[in-house]
Amino acid sequence: MSEQSAPSDNGISGVEIVLDHVSKTYPGQSEPAVADVSMTIPAGEIVVFVGPSGSGKTTTMRMINRLIEPTSGTITIGGRDALSLDANKLRRSIGYAIQQGGLFPHMTVAQNIAVVPKLLKWDKKRIDARVSELLDLVNLDQTQFADRYPRQLSGGQQQRVGVARALAADPPVLLMDEPFGAVDPITRGLLQDELMQLQAELRKTIVFVTHDFNEAVKLGDRIAVLGEQSRILQYDSPEAILANPANDTVAGFVGHGAALQQLNLTRVRDVDVEQRPTAHEGDSIADFASRITDYGVILDGKDRPVRWVNSSHLDRATSLADAGLPLGETVTTASTLQDALEAILAESYASAVVTGSRGRYVGVITIETLVETIRSLREVHQDDPAISEPAPGDTER
């Protein structure tokens, strides 16, 4: 397995991971913490391990990079036996992001991101370029953040740096252990959206651990619902698990809101995004005013949206650099319709701005679009009762 990943012809830079009868029994324990887990994690997908505390989901994930050594079984990463490789080299080729970023407090942001490239003996010019690239990738301005220390960052900023550090050496695999569990709900939603945007661009193989089933539905291409000793109760797409939970335990995770969960399965990119007039902060006020009928959006020098503006704002403005009202909550093309609904309800224009790669403006999603989409989803549910009713029986997969 190479220390850097090269995209395949289909744009996937991740590699397949196979766990074959993997178990872990700690010394002095009669029962295994993880018992006989077998699963294939496809290249370029996000696979989420979800289960109650103590189910062994973190132990299972940590055996992939050998932070915990398996007692038995085999793990292959990109076709190579992970247990036959030098453990330190293996870990340098796998990104690892944990709760609260896990940053070194005595290092600056730039130094934290550079840790693995330095271990790999990259030259300074290459490291500096990579740090700059990654800060841009996670939407942190290099001039503002590169020389800050972790204590000078918010929780969300620390998590962004943690993800950047995990991606520093461009690994094919990224392991994420409840990375957003310690931030507030709004920041958590934004970080989830940013991860989805990153994944659309990078196509890594990501193993993500959470106890939050809603997060699993939002992020996962596939979800592994784990029971005691990491026994796989069901391993399938979010849609399949919502439609047909394998047993009563899985149905308990899904809960009674399976129909509402469909809002978490439909992305902003799946619906019509509308356009509004835009202008950059240095553009002509008169020209912008001539194009506005209801409202427009002002962009910064990197095409990122910064403010709403209407005609009355422009009548008294001297510059587009300070005209209008600051944007509230935005959504990305990877955001769910549930995220979009929450953002729209917080805005005065009954719309939410949509951003794409690197935070660039894409358009707006309106309440009318959302209502029509929800109506369509309800019609699908009424026509297909299997979507809203759990399958009978308790057969495990």
Which spans of ≥5 residues are poorly predicted at pLDDT below 50? 385-397
Please tell me the overall pLDDT: 88
Number of helices: 16
What structural class should be given to the helix and strand makeup?
alpha/beta
CATH homologous superfamily title of the largest domain? P-loop containing nucleotide triphosphate hydrolases
CATH topology name of the largest domain: Rossmann fold
CATH architecture of the largest domain, please? 3-Layer(aba) Sandwich
Helix content: 25-40%
Strand order of the largest sheet: 6-7-8-3-9-10
Oligomer state of the chains in this structure: single chain
**Estimated share of beta-strand residues:** 15-25%
Explain this structure to me?
- The structure is a single chain.
- This protein is of the alpha/beta class.
- The chain has 2 domains: 17-256, P-loop containing nucleotide triphosphate hydrolases (Rossmann fold, 3-Layer(aba) Sandwich); 270-376, Roll (CBS-domain).
- The protein is built from 16 helices and 17 strands.
- The strands form 4 sheets. A 6-stranded mixed β-sheet has the order 6-7-8-3-9-10, sandwiched between helices. The protein has a 4-stranded antiparallel β-sheet with strand order 2-1-4-5, covered by helices on one side.
- α8 (185-202) links the parallel β7 and β8 (205-210).
- α5 packs across α7.
- The longest helix has 18 residues, at 185-202.
